[in-house]
């Protein structure tokens, strides 16, 4: 690599980090600098900014380097890729983080990296950045570290002592996809690293309940990310894989990143990216499992040939397929059944449960709690409303699906 200025390195390594979606900063412990040090994870110094596609942009999101000894087919920074290379020193990352935070540009650091020399060497560098920020500079802001599953478990464990959140990427939804597109990576090593992190987090949580002086350990938990559309995995397979990650490893979040074609791409990759709406539908299905009580097989049952429909959301797709579960009486049904109603979110259901203790709810009352009463009406009964045969209409999907939009001829 030719000599580069810090600004030039930042341009290269910030751009190289844009493909990572798992940079949200929610769920961490509260810290501030009133007792000394710099930074905070709460209060006026923290602003959560999001890009139009939902990605968090309030962190300094960079790679330590985009040099990599691995040659994963889908990765823009793979060994055989013809891209401009750059590398930060540990001290440069530390100073960039402190400088951006003092200017109130960021709330913390999201740090990932290509593999330099070896997995252990790279992991040592990542951990050293976090250690210097915490111990030498008393940085109390948010730190999210992307760890390397091939590294020594002791190094991954050390990362959790300094970071708020740890990410260990599962990369692809299926073992077969990983073997085909990233043969140098091992599904077994990835799952072993995730299991070790879960165990360390649980142990630290138990210790904190018994001892006030117990140190915090990755208080925002661990997350992972999988690429959608690079292999032949169906949405049903992706949903099943995500559910297994939540159940087995206590994941805080599973992130989905639509595959994006890269320069000089391998012949085994698709020529076109999947529609971004597919990524959006997967996030909606994820919410159904996390907040609405749906099991993975129930969400999978809403698919068509293994794929979630793009014209309607997964909850509506499930309701249309299982119409015998409706209508639901908003004045009598329990929370679990109300959460199955298309158009009713968790806050709306909570309000319904509270309000109906005082009086019978009418359709107009429910209408105040939803963005589209037309979407809700076929699936509920209220004090003054019965859908009669509406829920059984053959054209109900057409009536409820959003209208098609004319695309611009020269849209990007």
From TrEMBL:
It comes from Novosphingobium anseongense. It comes from the Bacteria. Signal peptide: none annotated. Keywords: Iron, Iron-sulfur, Metal-binding, S-adenosyl-L-methionine. Its cofactor is [4Fe-4S] cluster. CDD domains: Radical_SAM (cd01335). Residues 63-185 form the Radical SAM core domain. InterPro entries: Aldolase_TIM, DNA_rSAM_put, Endo/Exo/Phosphatase_dom_1, rSAM, rSAM_sf, RuvA_2-like. This is DNA modification/repair radical SAM protein.
